[in-house]
Amino acid sequence: MKQFVFVLLGLLLLAGCSGATPAATPTPDYADELMGAVYDPPRELQEFNLDSTTGAAFELSAYSGDVILLYFGYRSCPDFCPTTFAELRRVMNDLGDLAEKVQVVFVTIDPDRDTLDLLGLYTAAFNPDFIGLRGEGDTLQAVMDQFGVVAEKQVLGDDPQAYLMDHTASVFLIDPQGRLLSQYLYGTNYRDIVHDIQVLLGANPQA
Prior knowledge:
Order of helices and strands: EEEEEHEHEHEEEEH
Structural class: alpha/beta
Number of strands: 11
């Protein structure tokens, strides 16, 4: 079902709000064709720079012209994260040649345990082109705040390494202009994401 939102919505596990106040930009004409929860208007994102499994720092602006599917999670996640990445793998497979204009990005919310080497092994298990990103402290928090993402540690026992992370489990779509365009809640049919990317890239043939 087509959805239009005026605030960040759909945090699966926890509620939170973004501290950023991005500038408004016109809603694209094709927005009413999209299946995801559309940001009306799209949100301008500030540049961010995080360490990446590619060996080079990730900069959002370097992917201008491409669609980015961004997900915040952690490697030890027992359910939401592996399920989501299995679905994103299906998205990329179904896109065919259009997948060349799409980048899947995984930002860890658990930098204490998720090294870049481990993130690289994790993302490659789903698709060798998926990228893992790692940041710490205020740097990571600033990126999370732009998307209204929240994460909270749930300690399981005396072992400081024994914990789970309750976190926002949505996929965020960034359009070829670098704007946050839509959000897909956990459990969204992967075909809806495929559909939206096809519409988006068809409406932006220069991308």
